[in-house]
Design a protein that fits this description.
The structure is a single chain. The protein has 364 residues and is an all-alpha fold. The protein has a domain of 128 residues. α8 packs antiparallel against α9. The longest helix has 40 residues. It is globular, with a radius of gyration of 25 Å. The C terminus is likely disordered.
Length: 364
């Protein structure tokens, strides 16, 4: 069978496009299976060093995996319980917050009455509520669907950790024997880089949550811990996440505080935290070698939302980062890795310097 490169470009592009469409269709229809499996894969990657350490201490594999999973379940359960109690306390204050919100809306309507008639304002508000309800319904449906499958996570994670040697041997065997050493080297580097990347994301999230919480405590915003943690979770989403993370405490401050000083303080604080995150935490903790450029990040989040909903939005960035790690370590895929990355300007400057050294005067 002739290689794909021997075909004309329009044939190759058609085949690749058809393959991408088929892949997206399969992912969308298998979301109930693949979403918990994807989360379990990330959990297995994070727990693999702990399992290896327990096995090094002569703990059998099955008890080692069970101990690691129990530790993960306890930690995640404690965080979830804390967030749930905070959320319940927040919802218990909703009636008072709703009264304050109605008061603010009425005042705003009265201020705008000279420019926009009241009946037109009521129409706009009704249309906005009608548009928000389906969005909330889809979001809650996605969350409920994720919670319904969360019980599969420990099962998937256990089996992935238990059969990891079998899967690695499969990858070795599907390549030619003369390339086994290269495959082994790539797999070892990819595994280490992925683990470093995922741990970096966790550490970055903890630091951002801490900074958010401290800033909100200083500003006197209610539910500072809840807002800080939610802001760190939303921060995984590029651009959109930072805006949503700031909007939540600003809305709470608007409802619970008088004046605009607190809202301005929240906006400035979150801008400073975003600056610290983008210029210090991500480059030095998550590592710049898996930094994804803005265009790919936005497209990945939107595609993830279209295919897997809310879960896809949060899974898209880690998996794009994992793909970039793999692409950067496979010579044939390195151009794709550079496409996902953000080193274009440096590369262009290097090429321009080479042209200048060679005496060329033309530019692109």
């Amino acid at each position: 069978m002739p290689a794909l490169k021997t075909y004309p470009f329009y044939v190759r592009s058609t085949i690749i496009l058809f393959g991408l469409i088929l892949c997206a269709y399969s992912l969308a229809n298998l979301r109930d299976i693949l979403v918990p499996f994807s989360f379990a894969l990330l959990v297995a990657i994070l727990l693999n060093p702990l399992v290896n350490r327990l096995e090094f201490w002569r703990v059998p594999r099955i008890p080692a995996i069970a101990i690691a999973l129990i530790i993960a379940i306890v930690v995640i359960g404690a965080v979830w319980y804390f967030l749930a109690t905070q959320m319940m306390h927040f919802t218990s204050q909703l009636p008072a917050l709703e009264i304050k919100t109605d008061t603010l809306v009425s005042k705003l309507q009265h201020d705008l009455a000279t420019k926009i008639p009241m009946d037109r304002q009521n129409q706009y508000i009704a249309e906005a509520k009608a548009g928000i309800k389906p969005l909330i319904g889809r979001t809650l449906g996605s969350v409920v669907g994720t919670l319904a499958t969360v019980f599969l996570l420990p099962v998937y994670a256990f089996l992935l950790l238990y059969y990891k040697t079998l899967m690695l041997n499969f990858l070795y065997e599907i390549f030619a024997k003369d390339r086994e050493a290269d495959v082994r080297d790539v797999l070892v580097k990819v595994r280490g880089a992925i683990q470093s990347y995922m741990y970096g994301l966790l550490i970055e999230g903890l630091i951002v949550a801490t900074l958010n919480t401290i800033a909100l405590f200083i500003l006197g915003v209610p539910y500072a811990i809840l807002m800080g943690i939610l802001g760190a979770v939303l921060n995984v989403l590029p651009f959109f996440g930072g805006i949503l993370a700031a909007l939540l405490p600003i809305m709470v401050a608007t409802i619970t505080k008088t004046g605009l000083h607190t809202q301005i303080g929240v906006a400035i604080s979150y801008m400073i935290i975003q600056f610290i995150d983008n210029h210090f935490l991500i480059p030095y903790i998550v590592s710049s070698r898996v930094k994804i450029n803005a265009l790919i990040s936005i497209v990945a989040v939107l595609l993830g939302a279209a295919v897997w909903g809310l879960s896809g939005m949060f899974l898209s960035i880690p998996f794009i980062g994992i793909l970039k790690i793999i692409f950067d370590r496979i010579p044939e895929m390195q151009p794709w890795g550079r496409l996902l990355g953000s080193a274009v300007d440096v590369r262009r400057r290097t090429m321009r310097k080479r042209r200048q050294r060679g005496g060329g005067t033309h530019s692109m």
